[in-house]
Specification:
transmembrane helix; membrane; elongated; transmembrane; CBU-0592-like domain-containing protein; CBU_0592-like
Length: 116
């Protein structure tokens, strides 16, 4: 059986991506909430899944597809959480500004306070 086009090169890159993600996480450079960490996992898993087609290796293919789906799900979670946090942060900032403006309006001006 003939292997797929560039399967060896893609397999090598996939291994580099997965080992880089694992190493960077273990050395504290990245954590699992990092988009780079999850992206490296997606690329590595998809690369290994590609190499599992010829010669066909169902165990590797299933494992790598599940790995990629999990990493994509965490990427989705990361980006939706950041957008939610940004929206909530903007709302909180507006509320704080309105509160500060209301507080300033309630304070008497210094020149209107009588001398004692």
């Amino acid at each position: 059986m003939e292997s797929l086009t560039l399967s060896h090169e893609i397999g090598i890159l996939a291994g580099i991506f997965l080992v880089a993600a694992y190493g960077l996480m273990n050395f504290g450079v990245l954590d699992t909430s990092s988009p780079l960490y999850q992206s490296l996992n997606v690329l590595g898993a998809l690369g290994f899944a590609y190499t599992a087609f010829a010669p066909f290796n169902p165990g590797l293919l299933i494992t790598e597809i599940v790995w990629a789906v999990v990493a994509v799900a965490f990427l989705w979670k990361i980006f939706t959480r950041k957008n939610t946090a940004t929206d909530e942060g903007a709302e909180a900032e507006v509320a704080e500004t309105e509160l500060a403006d209301a507080h300033v309006a309630e304070e008497p001006a210094l020149d209107s306070v009588p001398n004692r």
